[in-house]
C-alpha cells in the first residue's frame, strides 16, 4: 500500500499486508524496512499474576495477549476493555495452555487506541470520505479553507474558536489521539 500525504488520505484498515487479521499474520519476522500492525478490541481482562487480555480482531477471531515486559502492570496500564490494542510486527506465540496469541516482551511494540473497533473504522472512513471530497484542508468545524492544524492530529481548523468548539462540543477531544495514529499510518509506506 503506497503512503498517503497530509492532503490525500487513502489508508485501508482492511489491507491484510499492513493490517493482517488472525488468518493472515506473517509466519516469519519482518525484514528490514517491513512492518505490519495487528490490532483488535480488548474484550476481556484475564489478568491474574500478569496482564493478559482477550482481543477480538477485525474478522472476529479472539486471541490472548500477555505482557512479559520488565514492568508489565505499567506497560499494560492503558489496556481497557473496549479499547483497541495494536501490536507492531507481532509474531504468533503458543502459550503453555495450547492457545495461540501474542507475548509482549518489548513495550515499544504495543500501544492502545482509546476507541472501539467500530469507532476506529468510522474515523478511518470519515477521513477517506473527506479526502475523496477534497476537503482535507477545510476547517473541520465550519468547512472554510484553512492552513492551521491541530498540533497533535493535524486536523484543520480556521480559528482558535472553531478548534475550541470542536474540542469541547464536537468530540475532537475523544478522537484526536486516534486520528493522529491514523494519519501516521496513512503516511507510512508499509513496504
Automatic annotation (TrEMBL):
PROSITE patterns, per database record: ZF_MYND_2
SUPFAM superfamilies associated with the record: HIT/MYND zinc finger-like
GO molecular function terms noted in the UniProt entry: zinc ion binding
Domain MYND-type: 139-176
Top-level taxon in the UniProt lineage: Eukaryota
InterPro entries according to UniProt: Znf_MYND
Keyword Amino-acid biosynthesis: no
Name of the molecule in the record: MYND-type domain-containing protein
Keywords assigned: Metal-binding, Zinc, Zinc-finger
